[in-house]
Structures
1.
Amino acid sequence: MINMAGKKSHPKFKVPNFGAKKRKGVPERWRKQRGIDNKLRIDKKGYGATPKIGYKNSAEVRFARKEGMFELLVHNEAEMAAMQKDEKHVAVFAHGISRRKRALMQKLADSKGIRVVNRLRK
């Protein structure tokens, strides 16, 4: 397990004027500002944070889940069998795997003691 205390927190990066009346259709997500007079682009105070390299986490904790495990994308039984009770990784079924194949792989994971993030629901 990884100590998740090393993971930094950062503010939400939003489109400026997200809550304004005339911009109700603007989804809450980040887009780089490119306007000539844009206050957020020129880093004026009070207009919100922009993504910068300083928010990056250390290599040991980057891409880790909240519980400290890393995701490993699995496409077939051979990849699932190769995990063999890995303490650092959890399995994630690939998007293109059929329901029947997922069920087989899920049984294999249960027998080997491998945790699967996107399991089939009963």
Note: The longest helix spans residues 99-112.
2.
Amino acid sequence: MLDSLKKRERVVGVKQTKKAIEQDKIEAVIIAEDADQRVVGQVRQLCEEKRIQIHTAESMKQLGKAAGIEVNAAVVGLLKS
């Protein structure tokens, strides 16, 4: 999943991912396992309510690098094609 992340249309970060989920634009979400659960909990809950696939990455550092950004990322949302 992380290998193809740079090639996909995506949103990075909790706020942008939540907004895209609410607008029904997200196909799947990747959440870093070491992210603070208070931060990613709302995204996880929205995904469960809307039956959006949830994948995990080992770390925020790994997820940020896979998304092609210079900083750590707690959440990345993959946009629908």
Note: The mean pLDDT is 95.
3.
Amino acid sequence: MPGTDQAASWLASARSSLTDIAAGPQTDRTGRVEDIGDGIALISGLPDAKLDELLSFGKGRYGFVHGLEEDSIGCILLNNEGTIEAGDPVQGTSGVVSVPVGPELLGRVVDPLGRPLDDKGPVQAETWLPVERPAPAIIDRELVTEPVQTGTLAIDALFPIGRGQRELIVGDRATGKTTIAVDAILSQKSSDMICVYVAIGQKTSSVQRVIETIRTRGNPDRCIVVVARPAEAPGLCWIAPFAAMSMAEYFRDRGQHALIVFDDLSKHAATHREVSLLTGRPPGREAYPGDIFYVHARLLERAAKLSAAKGAGSLTALPVAETEAGNLSAYIPTNLISITDGQIVLNRTLFDQGQKPAVDVGVSVSRVGGAAQAPILRSSVGTLRLDYAQFVELEAFTRFGGLPDTHVRQQLTRGARIREILRQGPHAPLDLLQEVALVTASQNGFLDALPAKNIRTIQNNLVANLRHNVPEIVTAIESGGALSGEQKERFLACLKQSVEKLASRVL
């Protein structure tokens, strides 16, 4: 009968399809949501969950374990809670939060999970890395000796930064912290450094300005912008610096050089305090949990200059932190200062007086120092920092009255010119030749006879004259090497002649 034949055929087909199925017990790690709110979910039923384990709520919704209690788990959500409700199932994944990395991210604006925020379609990355990775061992590191040109003369000349260094930028709100960091990115337009900018809880308008600046004045095809918007789940803000660090480490571990800007870690600390208190961790100083130091330490320790055996790549970190009323002794600034290799301190008073960038020379420091400075710039700087510091003190003292002697008047004249060459507009980074020319002219007294207000007028023409008159010396300077004795003499003579010629036009 036809019906009997069809049934027999179906049975034979079904039997063959079952032969490859392994029969046996299977476990399903499933818990349930007990309570949810403020970006935090309390979960029961997952007794074997691990710290930082990725949990799935279904429909593309995830979170990670942040706190382990005896009868519950504190989970930080990576999506706004939306439709998640008490009683919903939660599954353990036995994995950790990972992000896409690689050259496919260059030129893109993404969120901390690597999801696109621009209009260029999905990120087709082939490699993924966990957001939490161990820092390179001491034996795998090399000395920091290669310079990072930030384009800000006050930093490159007085507080040089090296590849693999961690230099904190700290100051009150709206004193130019982000401008200095973005200028450092713009200065890498023609260098071999890949830049990563991560915005942590910053206003959308501020982030958009940074992105537009990089696109118009920098090299966006060698930059990655990671944005954790304030309206998103707090979990995204929490993992943002770690995710961006993994994206930058991809290039470092392949022998390349990267620069990462964290803007800013004060907001990240506030997010950590928020989620920690919501998950029941005890508060400490200024209500921050005691592990906030460890959180930022394990993040910034990942910046390093690797040894030749590890590919000789480097990852330089520029974390930004905000102070209130210039209080550097607050908890978070103090922590970050002790973790990093120096700090660029921005002074509100200097900023209000029009001295921009408002770098406080007396408090700022780079613990790597001249070892990471371009040799030609190091030989030109000489006593510049000491001269400027003395000028600041003398200027304050002479305000009380009295006629200074000839030597003091000369110091005041020279100091006023130093202050003028350190004055710089936003998003107009200087190249190495411009910095060397300005510092050399100042230190040799070529600018003393020129009114301070006219120094900025001759700057661009000064470099043009040098390029025309001594092109071979300009090439040597731009290569970063030191000049021979004969080249120094020719350079000084040409520089003096150019200053005098341009000064005669503006006087």
Note: The radius of gyration is 29 Å.
4.
Amino acid sequence: MEARDQSVRGKEAVAEVALRRRDSGLWGNSMCDVVTARKQFAPTIVSPNTQLGNMQAWDRSVDVALRAERNWALPVGQRREIVPGASHFAAHAIANPSWSNAYQVATIGDHTFYRVQRLKPRT
């Protein structure tokens, strides 16, 4: 849902932020925890009654997420990073978060990716 109307690269970048957050442990210990952390990703912002109307888009997003997880499972030096160090992102057409003055890593489609804080994998 988060990047449903974005390019594959945009979807990959959103997945990378979520994976980086999972590794840090600051938003939870699993991807489910991360994407359902209060007011962080679409599952906690949109109505729980939202219906998926485009199963092809859903399937493409699941494919991107699974490929992102496989990539992220590689050793750090072998991963393909799209938004290195990005811990946050925003679609400025619908949000203007207080941290949007942080270091901008990249803009892909409608999303700008930021390094708001340096996230380190938990030990």
Note: The helical segments are 8-24, 31-35, 55-72.
